[in-house]
Amino acid sequence: MAKKGARKSEKRLSASKTKMVKRKENTFTIKASSGPHNAQQSIPLGFLVRDLLELSTNRKETNEILNAGEIKIDGKSRKNGKFPVGLFDLISVEKKKENYRMILDTKGRLTPVKTEEKKATKLCKITGKKMNGKKIQLNTNDGRTFVEAKTDLKLGDSIKISLPEQKILEKLVQKKGNLAYVTGGKHTGAQGTIEEIIKGDINRQKTVKLKAKEKEFKTNAKNVFIIGEKKSEIELQVNSWKIQ
After folding, report:
1. How much is the pTM?
2. Which of 128, 141, 138, 137 is nearest to 181 (CA)?
3. Is 67 left (phi over 0), alpha (psi -120 to 50) or beta?
4. Which CATH superfamily includes the segment(s) 10-115?
5. Which of 173, 188, 162 is nearest to 75 (CA)?
6. Which residue pairs from 165-172 have beta carbons closer than 8 angstroms and sit at least 24 positions apart in sequence?
7. Contact at 8 Å (CB) between 215 and 193?
8. Where are the alpha helices (DSSP H) in the chain?
9. What is the distance between the alpha carbons of residues 161 and 168, in angstroms, rounded to a whole number?
10. Fold that domain 122-172 belongs to in CATH
């Protein structure tokens, strides 16, 4: 028997943990298509418009809003309700002239938070680096690619870009003293200052020690997203969380 392709529908019970969905309300929910964010780290645009921003009450109203070009993601109009929206994406509601930033709550679920930032910018994490001819190609967590003649940026560092031009404005290095945002583990959504970076080896993974609210904790380096030096380069809501 030939293998079937990916399912076009998604049951609420099997939806990603990043999706703030009422799992027992209905059987199915909107499924994200392929795009800049993977399925486990994103939510569909239609779900964001209808269920989180509550701009519509059903699929028909949602499609009307999207087809009218009223919603922009990172400065670009998106009309596909299945388009994947992920961490730190900037959501612009043109009709209301409101902007929202996607962040993680303490349970690791993506949620939009209104922002008053005047300039459209975004932070991206470097997740890939390789040679492209004689130049260096950088890949980011949201599917972007930057080609540089030379760069000191490494995996785990971040860049601040302008939207929609995608011009690099700032380079943020993963080092002691810089401010980080936790994207996984029991401290998801927390912000803290890097106290120490502990190198990994064959038996253990690289970890980072952070300090927040006069307390220290460790987390896997893959959960660390650099957001600034002395302060965050983007407006972020501080989540309430406890260090256990």
Report:
1. 0.86
2. 141
3. alpha
4. RNA-binding S4 domain (3.10.290.10)
5. 162
6. 169/121, 170/233, 172/123, 172/226, 172/227, 172/228, 172/229, 172/233
7. no
8. 45-47, 59-67
9. 4
10. OB fold (Dihydrolipoamide Acetyltransferase, E2P) (2.40.50)
Q: Given pLDDT bands bounded at 50, 70 and 90, which one contains residue 9?
A: low
Q: How far is CA 186 from the centre of its chain?
A: 17
Alpha carbon distance 102, 42 (integer Å): 10
- Tokens matching residue 169: 């404005």
Q: What is the pLDDT of residue 243?
A: 40
3-class DSSP string for 164-186: CCCCEEEEECCCCCCEEEECCCC
Following CA atoms 146, 180, 88, 136 in sequence, which dihedral angle do they give, to the nearest 10 degrees? 10
Q: What is the CATH number of domain 179-228?
A: 2.30.30.30
Residue 102 CA to residue 190 CA, distance in Å, equals 14
pLDDT for residue 10 is more than 80: no
